[in-house]
Design a protein that fits this description.
5-stranded antiparallel beta sheet; 5 strands; globular; binds adenosine monophosphate; binds zinc ion
Length: about 120
């Protein structure tokens, strides 16, 4: 799938609405439409990268930015001390359904381990 056909690229462009909770020059975050916890956000790069498998060496800074944004949001929302979970699903076997890389940020309830 190219960026043109991608749901999250359309959210980045503003063509599909989303409840944006964070943005900077490289990253945006918005509420998940089907939340799996009281707080569930998706942190994504503005740039289209389909999966973890598609990352290149030059993307390391961008991936760091995604996690720093997740941490900043978790801190801002008051979950830093209690804890929160970040998840990146890679490909269908892991549950990936939208092929624009994203970090799930989940918080607000006890999160069991191992995940399903
Ligand atoms: P994944 O299954 O890891 O690919 O995660 C994709 C996530 O995107 C799921 O948690 C969906 O609920 C979420 N999602 C799908 N469409 C939208 C949308 N239009 N706005 C916000 N979240 C969405
Ligand atoms: Zn995309």
């Amino acid at each position: 799938m190219t960026g043109q056909d991608c749901l999250f690229c359309k959210i980045v462009a503003g063509d599909i609405p989303a409840e944006r909770i964070y943005e900077d020059d490289q990253v945006i975050a918005f509420s998940d439409i089907n939340p799996q916890a009281p707080f569930h956000a998706l942190v994504i790069p503005r740039q289209h990268i389909a999966t973890l498998n598609d990352l290149e060496d030059g993307d390391s800074d961008l991936m760091g930015r995604l996690f720093l944004a997740a941490r900043a949001i978790a801190d801002r929302e008051g979950f830093g001390a209690a804890g929160y979970r970040t998840v990146v699903n890679c490909n269908r076997g892991a549950g990936q359904t939208v092929f624009h890389i994203h970090v799930h940020l989940l918080a607000g309830r006890p999160l069991d381990w191992p995940p399903g």
